[in-house]
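From the methods appendix. Each design record in this collection lists the tokenized structure first, followed by the designed amino acid sequence. Records were kept in a plain field format so they could be parsed without special tools. The example shown here is representative of the layout used throughout.

RECORD:
FOLD TOKENS (342 positions):
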């Protein structure tokens, strides 16, 4: 009899535990100047920890929040930083060194001058632009222990990578919380973790730059981080011309190369986020070259002539939404080989 009661109690316990771990928790909040929404399976307390982490990182990495590490660094030209700010700066400097003409966190004085921080939009004159260009060079940032120092007049902005870093941090939290799966939309940077309760692939919409609330297509994929950069996220118009918040570090001017949006998929959040910005600046041809010489990520690049470039690793996982008629061009390794032929 005792044995039977024990077995029944065990069954009840197992059923109760699996009911808890299969539950869905959701949260939505504002951080890093954007709205974030979380959906987590199999862990009841992960959402709270994820939200706390997002706010904590926002407080450390924001260039405008008066107590943040980045604000102190930019104000004083030198500062001892928290582990988060330090490790993200180091990684950002490494990535910038590899693709400096396209991705450089020291574009911040130019981002401010164009008005993308305070909303006081205007087109700087050529003299100002030349002065701004002279301040852009990530190799002038010095890291010594936990202290980072900048050249006089220089300032930095981790806006191009902060959400990717948060995605990587969230992955650790989900793992430690024993979550079985999650879809975290961190303001357009999306972390896909584990698996959905029904085991099907994640399906992520890619925003239509002409109508960012809608999607021009869908990507089916497993775990990873999807980051999108688009001029539509922040821009102003003057004399019929659009000026966007992604700048060319070599000119200090908004990028104007025909790229409308770039979506990058990789396992690494900081890499996805940095590359979405960098490939946007590169434009279609150089982006393809970069991918061919690295291949540790995939991307979708939409240009204003209606061409949609998709790397071969995700080409079969992408579906164009109804009503869109882009010319889809698969970027493959073979093209490079073919081009090299006499
Ligand atoms: P994202 O939306 O990830 O492409 O990041 C864009 C943000 O990064 C901008 O709002 C700027 O603050 C900053 N930024 C703009 N251009 C660059 C660039 N070429 N390299 C690094 N950061 C940039
Ligand atoms: Mg980015």
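DESIGN:
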């Amino acid at each position: 009899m005792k044995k039977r009661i024990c077995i029944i109690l065990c069954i009840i316990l197992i059923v109760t535990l699996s009911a808890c771990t299969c539950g869905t928790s959701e949260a939505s909040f504002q951080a890093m100047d954007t709205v974030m929404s979380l959906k987590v399976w199999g862990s009841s307390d992960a959402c709270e920890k994820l939200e706390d982490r997002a706010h904590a990182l926002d407080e450390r990495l924001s260039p405008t929040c008066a107590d943040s590490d980045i604000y102190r660094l930019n104000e004083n030209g030198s500062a001892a930083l928290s582990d988060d700010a330090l490790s993200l700066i180091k990684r950002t400097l490494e990535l910038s060194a590899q693709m400096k003409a396209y991705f450089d966190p020291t574009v911040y004085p130019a981002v401010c001058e164009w008005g993308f921080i305070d909303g006081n939009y205007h087109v700087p004159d050529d003299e100002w632009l030349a002065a701004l260009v002279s301040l852009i060079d990530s190799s002038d940032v010095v890291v010594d222990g936990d202290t980072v120092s900048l050249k006089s007049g220089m300032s930095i902005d981790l806006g191009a990578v902060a959400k990717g870093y948060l995605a990587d941090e969230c992955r650790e939290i989900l793992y430690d919380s024993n979550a079985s799966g999650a879809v975290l939309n961190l303001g357009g940077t999306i972390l896909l973790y584990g698996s959905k309760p029904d085991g099907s692939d994640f399906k992520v919409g890619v925003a239509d730059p002409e109508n960012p609330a809608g999607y021009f297509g869908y990507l089916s994929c497993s775990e990873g981080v999807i980051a999108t950069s688009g001029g539509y996220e922040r821009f102003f118009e003057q004399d019929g011309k659009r000026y966007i918040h992604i700048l060319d570090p070599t000119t200090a001017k908004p990028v104007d190369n025909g790229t409308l949006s770039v979506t990058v998929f990789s396992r690494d959040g900081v890499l996805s986020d940095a590359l979405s910005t960098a490939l946007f600046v590169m434009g279609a041809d150089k982006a393809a070259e970069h991918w061919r010489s690295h291949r540790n990520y995939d991307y979708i690049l939409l240009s204003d002539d209606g061409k949609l470039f998709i790397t071969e690793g995700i080409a079969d996982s992408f579906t164009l939404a109804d009503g869109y008629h882009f010319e889809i061009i698969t970027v493959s390794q073979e093209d490079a080989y073919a081009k090299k032929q006499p």
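APPENDIX NOTE: Residues 160, 227, 229, 273, 276-277 surround magnesium ion (ligand 2) (CB under 6 Å).
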